[in-house]
Amino acid sequence: NIKVFIGFTEVAGYYKNLHEGFLKNNIKCGYLNKGLNKLNYKTPTSNSIFFKLLMFYNKIVKNKILRILFTPAYLFITLLTFINIILIYDVLIIHLGSTLFKGLDIPLYKFFKKKLIVVSLGSESRPPILNGVFKDDLDITESRTIQNIINESEIIRDRVVYYEKHSDHFISSSSHCHYNTKPIINYILLGFPIEEINFDKKIIKKNNG
After folding, report:
1. According to the model, what pLDDT value does residue 75 have?
2. Hey, how many other C-beta atoms are within 10 angstroms of the C-beta on 47?
């Protein structure tokens, strides 16, 4: 049976819901969110011990000084996590820009004959002039020069091209695939994974008369 890994961050519950969907369809699936989960998305619990350790570390060790002190431990856990992914999973679904080793691990997945699917959900691939994240999420108030925009554009373009180069499939949307050089899979056609909704049949019957 195919084993699927999903990482390394969370966006609007997309990957958590995708993970739960795979499990409900009896597909073995691992999930790792290295982010701080600022919006308190529900976190899956059916992970390997390595995933749990890494997520626990990112949640607890927030102080910069502590992070420096615990760098050897962090690198060791991360290495074990990478080995765990390589040994167990066949297909990797990774959010564009997320990585275990600052992007160095991305080419290695193909080297180890893993199928890599990269997903972009918007701001990580959209040009700066169309990208609200630069104004809202980053709280940028100073005026941006043309050169700033050019620099930001190059960073985003290089990110897209790099991940695209090492992926087997790239899932995105026509609204933010400006920098892609190869065909994408439009996630609008695939649908957006949501939490399971348990409808109360009695309430529906009552409301419908």
Report:
1. 93
2. 18
Q: What distance in Å separates the CA atoms of residue 94 and residue 120, rounded to the nearest whole number?
A: 9
Alpha carbon distance 97, 163 (integer Å): 8
pLDDT < 70: residue spans in the chain: 36-43, 45-47, 133-144, 199-209
Residue 79: both structure tokens together: 């290495």
d(CA 77, CA 18): 25
Q: Tell me if residue 55 falls in helix, strand or coil.
A: helix
Instruction: Say how far apart CA 137 and CA 197 lie, in whole Å.
Output: 30
The 10s digit of each residue's pLDDT in 96-127 is 999 999 999 999 999 999 999 999 999 899 99
Task: Give the Cα separation of 51 and 208 in Å (integer).
Answer: 46
Tokens at 127, concatenated: 């040009």
Q: Which two tokens stand for residue 33?
A: 């969110």
3-state secondary structure of 166: helix
Type of residue at 114: K
Count, residues in the chain: 209
pTM confidence score: 0.86
Q: Where are the alpha helices (DSSP H) in 49-145?
A: 49-60, 64-69, 71-88, 106-111
